[in-house]
Amino acid sequence: LMVTRTLGDRLFERAGVTATPEVGERLRDEHDRWLVLATDGVWDVLSNEQVAAITGWHMTPRAISEALAGAATASGGTDNVTVLAVKLQLQLRRYNRASQHSVRSHLRPIR
């Protein structure tokens, strides 16, 4: 069963495969460095903590993706091991004194 075939394919719902995504939301902060998108071949064998530790050892998206795929395979992952690492950046924004806001730093995502 191919993952790309099951995304949005209603025919597979009868077999128990759903295209309903798992969605979560949280505010970013200055400690967030990477967004890791990976298939179940990675998440089935590596914990969030292991993934976070591996991202701390590497500096480029390619190096992180290769390291995570390698770690998943070495840990017994055989099911569709695919990883995409995205570097997150924050932009520091200041309000000026002329505004109603006090002068302070705010973090916001770069668009």
Protein model, in words:
With 111 residues, the protein is of the alpha+beta class. The chain contains four helices and four strands, in the order αβαααβββ. Strands 1-2 form a two-stranded antiparallel ribbon. It has a two-stranded antiparallel ribbon with strand order 3-4. The radius of gyration is 19 Å and the shape is globular. The two termini are 36 Å apart.
How are the elements arranged and paired?
Blueprint: H1 3-6, E1 34-38, H2 40-43, H3 48-57, H4 61-74, E2 83-87, E3 90-94, E4 105-109
Antiparallel strand pairs: 1-2, 3-4
Instruction: Give the SSE order as H and E letters.
Output: HEHHHEEE
Count of individual beta strands: 4
| Continuous helix count | 4
What coarse outline follows from CA principal-axis ratios? Answer: globular
Strand order of the largest sheet: 1-2
Strand content: 15-25%
Query: Which consecutive residue ranges, at least 5 long each, have pLDDT under 50?
Result: 95-107
Measured between the Cα atoms of the first and last residue, the distance is 36 Å
The chain-level structural class is alpha+beta
**Rg (CA only):** 19 Å
Mean pLDDT: 77
Helix content: 25-40%
Main beta sheet: strand number and arrangement? 2 strands, antiparallel
Descriptive terms for the model:
single chain; 111 residues; alpha+beta; two-stranded antiparallel sheet
